[in-house]
UniProtKB/TrEMBL annotation:
Record keyword DNA-binding present: yes
Entry-linked Gene3D superfamilies: Winged helix-like DNA-binding domain superfamily/Winged helix DNA-binding domain
Name used for this protein in its record: DP-E2F-like 1
Domain of life, per lineage: Eukaryota
DNA sequence: TAATCCCGCCAAACA
DNA sequence: TGTTTGGCGGGATTA
């Protein structure tokens, strides 16, 4: 029996017989069904604009990515035109560039020609991640220290390796994307969203970091900033880009946003266990916004226009998805422990998004019947309802990679 | 007030 | 030279 659970850095090639291909197939099934649920029932272009004032959330990259995937993750889709995508999604092309750059960096898309991408789908992800991991491990890294979270229980300083130079990275051949094939002189590519996405993912793949703040990630990914002034400016800019990246990745459940040690609440998903009581895994949305993921938010005053009619009931937590798709080495007590800790920790954090929340407390069961549970997805989804909690102070907002690792 | 991140300007890259 | 691409940061929105 395969085990799906928390872990880091070692997930893509599961040990102890964990079948990566099967995991991916399961994940794809989940993603497909979830994307359908997350898809707004009305045209994105029309929603909101007709009856509601401008709503920033309707324009979020995460939501756009969800809709993008819904649009193209279908049989028979082989190529994607950017203009067509922009038109169909009702956004300007500039936004499509952001989406496709991130999707390309994780292997979902591949650039064919001007204005044209080929759709590789979620099946492209494992190879892309494997390439990223190998590439990251191969690279001649320098070492930085960063305050990162390596477990749910303790913060500690860990050493994170980062590439010694962007040039090293972009010159390395890789099947992941064209970013790695950029010329040395291509300064623009060095700062591309796609490359930044890949480096961001490498932080998780090539280190034992589970959680990292975008601020820290920006500092780590900041190439050459020894000049404090340059560093400050670049960091601010990169944090903005990392927000973009994280929101796109989170819409695919690649990463999740967590609150580190905050005392309480916000918007979130609360699980109701079979016996009707709330279990230990209470999901609380951050006080801060998570654009694009707020399709799970039932607050009328906020994203009413985009909520599907059954949007509230069709939500599942990332954690449940995580429990389904994570490939955890069998018998790894450390990670098992981490998973349990993660379950507790989640009571202080939140996991939600287009692919919705569930309970990690079910992880054990999920590990036993993960494949079957995929088929029961919709039934499980109906168990969960968003619930409002009083907002608490939030700090230590972190991001972690959850798929495959 | 700080965190978040949408928006669109405009320059680089490309055809 | 026109078009495509996408870095970048201002500033609006939200908690």
């Amino acid at each position: 029996m395969r085990q799906y659970g928390g872990g880091k850095g070692q997930g893509i090639v599961g040990r102890h017989g964990c079948d990566l291909v099967e995991v991916v197939v399961v994940m794809i099934s989940i993603l497909r069904s979830c994307v359908k649920m997350a898809m707004p029932s009305s045209e994105p272009k029309e929603s909101g604009s007709r009856h509601f004032p401008y709503c920033r959330k309707e324009k979020s990259l995460g939501l756009l990515c969800t809709n993008f995937l819904s649009l193209y993750d279908k049989d028979g889709v082989e190529t994607i035109g950017l203009d067509e995508a922009a038109t169909r999604l009702g956004v300007e092309r500039r936004r499509i560039y952001d989406i496709v750059n991130v999707l390309e960096s994780v292997g979902i898309l591949a650039r064919m020609a001007k204005n044209r991408y080929s759709w590789k789908g979620f099946r492209g992800i494992p190879q892309a991640l494997q390439d990223l991991k190998e590439e990251g491990l191969r690279e001649n890294y320098s070492t930085l220290e960063v305050n990162a979270k390596v477990s749910d229980d303790e913060d500690e300083k860990v050493s994170i390796s980062i590439a010694s130079s962007q040039d090293d990275k972009i010159n390395r051949s890789s099947s992941v994307s064209s970013f790695s094939k950029a010329s040395k002189t291509n300064n623009r590519k060095e700062k591309s969203l796609g490359l930044l996405t890949q480096n961001f993912i490498k932080l998780f793949l090539c280190s034992n970091v589970e959680l990292i703040s975008l601020d820290d990630a920006a500092k780590i990914l900041l190439g050459d900033a020894h000049d404090p002034s340059i560093r400050r400016n670049n960091s601010a800019a990169k944090v903005r880009r990392l927000y973009d990246i994280s929101n796109v990745l989170s819409s695919m459940n690649f990463v999740e946003k967590r609150q580190g040690s905050l005392p309480s609440g916000g918007w979130g998903i609360r699980e109701k266990s079979e016996n009707g009581s709330e279990n230990a895994f209470v999901l609380n949305e951050s006080k801060k916004r998570v654009f694009g993921t707020e399709i799970t938010n039932t607050s009328f005053k906020r994203s009413k226009a985009l909520l599907p009619k059954d949007g509230c009931s069709n939500q599942m937590s990332k954690t449940q998805l995580q429990a389904h798709v994570k490939c955890e080495p069998m018998g790894n007590e450390v990670h098992k422990s981490n998973l349990q800790q993660d379950s507790r920790q989640s009571s202080k954090g939140y996991r939600f998004g287009p692919f919705a929340p569930v309970s990690v407390s079910r992880a054990g069961a999920a590990e036993k019947n993960n494949v079957k549970q995929v088929h029961d997805w919709e039934n499980l989804a109906a168990t969960y309802r968003p619930e409002y909690h009083n907002q608490g102070i939030m700090y230590d907002l972190m991001w972690s990679l959850i798929i495959f690792f």
